[in-house]
Amino acid sequence: MHSAGIVLHPRRDSEAAVTAMLDWAANRGIEILGIADEIQRLNCAAVGVTAAELARRSDLLVSLGGDGTMLRAMRLVDGQRAPVLGVNLGKLGFLAEVDVPDLPAALSAIDDHQFTVEPRLAVDAVIGGQTATAFNDVAVVRVPGDGSAVVAVRVSGHEFVSYAADAVIVATPTGSTAYSFSAGGPITSPAVEALLVTPAAPHSAYSRGVVLSVHDTVELDILPTSGRLAVEVDGEVRGYVEPGNRIELRGRPSAARVVRLGMTTFYQRARRKLRLTDSPEIPVTP
Length: 286
Fold this sequence. Notes:
Helix 1 (15-26) links the parallel strand 1 (3-8) and strand 2. This protein folds into two domains: 3-115 and 261-273, Probable inorganic polyphosphate/atp-NAD kinase, domain 1 (Rossmann fold, 3-Layer(aba) Sandwich); 121-254, Probable inorganic polyphosphate/atp-NAD kinase, domain 2 (Tumour Suppressor Smad4, Sandwich), CATH 2.60.200. Helix 1 runs parallel beside helix 5 (103-111). The longest helix has 12 residues, at 15-26. By secondary structure, the chain is α/β, with parallel strands linked by helices. It has helices spanning 15-26, 36-39, 51-57, 67-76, 103-111, 179-182, 266-273, and strands spanning 3-8, 31-35, 47-49, 60-65, 84-88, 98-99, 116-127, 130-134, 137-142, 149-155, 158-165, 167-171, 194-200, 210-213, 218-222, 229-233, 236-241, 246-260. Helix content is 19%, strand content 39%.
């Protein structure tokens, strides 16, 4: 490994994690890179580069923050060779692999090649002629005062199901534990290649979500009775659509890769971090 990049949360204290990265790199002759605007507030020895250079030059990218920082790191390395190691500086940190105290051991495991990489699916959305990429989800969301989201879902050119709801969410398996989950969608292993369509607070007689093949094209048609809708890409508003507009979506497998150290499985993390509980009718086993 010649160089490793760091992606920082804009506000959280990342000094301890950055120091661990620099100590590890100094003993191995590895160059640490960071986005110049982000690292200047730390006054550290990392080399400041542009976001594009960071993705291109890094052999490993380390995300220091929460899930939002991890998603940004995955978008940075979209199509590049570097896998992303998530280090949790936040509260939930569902996508992260380790907490800060475990970072030195994680870096040693990477040195010893005791890790795997897990491919992650992205979804590309064409909105008004512009393409935006999400690793969690794309959602069309009602604007308060402008009426419900009335949306027809077309699959491979054919109308499949329509919803009237507060929002319609198209999520990747990575995003199945985010907005889609809060709207009643299924928890889905990131090993599954599929797109999940989930209505939030549906007003329709049909209120179930659907799971679609990643090989199918998906279109969201905004129907005449819909209000104006915000389009959120990984939680950020990227534009607005109105009745008559269409959003085209396509899943893209293996757009990014994340580091897994084998300390826990996806299912163990989901059960612990989402605090999944069993039915009270099931006896507790010691």
